[in-house]
Write a structure and sequence with these properties.
The protein has 429 residues and is an alpha/beta fold. It has two domains: 210 residues, Rossmann fold; 190 residues, Nucleotidyltransferase, domain 5, CATH 3.30.420. It contains 13 helices and 16 strands. The chain has an eight-stranded mixed beta sheet with strand order 3-4-5-2-6-7-1-8, covered by helices on one side. The chain has a six-stranded mixed beta sheet with strand order 15-12-9-10-11-16. Strands 13-14 form a two-stranded antiparallel sheet. Helix 1 packs parallel to helix 2, helix 2 packs across helix 3 and helix 11 crosses helix 13. The longest helix has 18 residues. The chain is elongated, with a radius of gyration of 26 Å.
């Protein structure tokens, strides 16, 4: 059987480096040959390296079964492989076993902890952008099958295929922003697939608006600003900010327990400079104060505490409010401390409007700056979104957070930062 591959498919299959691990993503539009290329590569690896163990998976098993597995069977039929002779399919174990001892497991990735017992030679990921980054890291750690002496030029491989992301998710962070030399992104527009029916792309052009067509047909990177809570934030807002022990420091607080999120800033009459953040998991207000002291024990200027107005309420676990705890701890450390909070929190839309006005106002003036040290705040700025078609922020659910730990840090650092802006430069809507 001979295949005439598309240029992008050939680039995807072939390794251009000599590292022991190759990680490749085939990003393309509808009908660009993504799943075709992935399944073909999985079979070729199973045939070339007798006894190798591969894993094919996606977010749900339905997607694996109805899309990826079917493509594997189509390839095997095209290659004239006979079931029962050249390969066997075990429905009980959900795996393909080849005549040379190689096997390919088909799984869902909804419970990544169940993958930790596997030692693998390769992994294929269907719709790679749909799985959490934490799952990807688990899979990386499973690239540890013992290399057989008869495997010539063997390379561990993780390869996936996906439509372009619509936000700056982990695919963007891993493959666009300073990727390692053995990480590859192959972009494949649908228009380059010569095997599609004539006028296929023209019909899609009639069906979709330009933005959707550019993303899901031409395979272009998505519009990462769509539905973002923070508008117009750019490289102009990111700068190295020097902490000054003689200046006043504003600590603006969000009192969630996991994570607790505080941002630290200097400010002038009309500008704010976020120079650091304290974001801790499973902690307390007192322990977060201890972390501030650990970092800035010699601070001489005043410390001004801003933040969530609800932090001035007593909790069922303490006779003191969060702000009383902070003030007492900071005074014990020898700081000059003052509490400045509102009597109650304004509507969140007001805080968002105030924050965006400082990012860049209608005159194009920038008055808000964030240090690269504030990783969690920047993560929020680049990723916190509204639910499509609404003015409600898309806060991740418990199930989503369980699947991807990074999501637990959405909303809280932004809340902390926006409380400060709203206190000094409020907007009434």
């Amino acid at each position: 059987m001979k295949y005439k591959l598309l240029d992008a498919q050939r680039e995807f299959l072939e390794i251009p480096h000599s590292y022991s691990l190759d990680v490749a993503v085939y990003q393309g539009g509808y009908g660009s040959g993504k799943t075709f290329a992935g399944a073909l590569l999985g079979i070729l690896l199973a045939l070339k390296f007798p006894g190798v163990r591969g894993l094919v998976g996606a977010k749900t098993y339905t997607l694996v079964r109805d899309t990826t597995l079917q493509t594997y069977f189509e390839h095997l039929d095209s290659m004239k492989f006979e079931a029962g002779k050249d390969y066997k399919w075990s429905s009980a174990e959900q795996k393909l076993v080849f005549h040379n001892g190689s096997e390919i497991l088909f799984r869902h990735f909804d419970e990544p902890d169940k993958l930790k017992s596997l030692n693998l030679g390769f992994v294929e990921i269907e719709e790679m952008s749909d799985i959490p980054y934490d799952t990807f890291k688990v899979l990386l750690a499973r690239m540890r099958q013992t290399i057989s002496s008869n495997w010539k030029n063997f390379t561990y491989r993780i390869f996936g295929h996906t439509n372009p992301e619509l936000q700056k998710g982990w695919i963007y962070k891993t493959f666009f922003v300073n990727p390692p030399p053995n990480y590859r992104l192959i972009c494949a527009p649908t228009t380059q697939n010569i095997y599609l029916p004539k006028d296929f792309c023209e019909e899609l052009k009639k069906l979709y608006d330009k933005k959707y067509y550019d993303t899901f047909v031409l395979g272009k990177t998505g519009d990462y600003t769509e539905n973002l809570v923070v508008k117009d934030f750019s490289d102009e807002n990111v700068r190295e900010i020097q902490y000054n022990e003689d200046f006043d420091v504003h600590i603006s607080c969000d009192f969630n327990v996991d994570p607790m999120a505080w941002v630290l800033a200097h400010k002038t009459e009309d500008k704010v400079f976020y120079f650091d953040e304290i974001v801790l998991e499973n902690t307390t207000t007192a322990k977060t104060c201890d972390e501030f002291y650990r970092r800035y024990p010699r601070h001489k200027g005043k410390i001004i505490i801003n933040g969530d107005a609800s932090g001035d309420n007593r909790s069922c676990t303490s006779e003191y409010t969060n702000y009383v705890i902070i003030k007492k701890k900071m005074l014990d450390f020898g700081y000059d401390v003052e509490i400045k909070i509102k009597a109650f929190n304004p509507p969140i839309k007001n805080r968002i409007a105030a924050f965006n006005a400082k990012v860049k106002n209608a005159k194009g003036e920038v008055s808000l700056y964030v240090s690269p040290k504030c990783e969690k705040l920047l993560y929020n700025i680049y990723n916190l979104r509204y639910i499509i078609g609404s003015s409600k922020i898309d806060v991740p659910s418990y199930t989503q957070i369980k699947q991807s730990k990074d999501l637990k840090f959405l909303s809280h650092p932004f809340d902390a930062a926006s409380y400060l802006v709203d206190f000094y430069w409020p907007i009434v809507l």
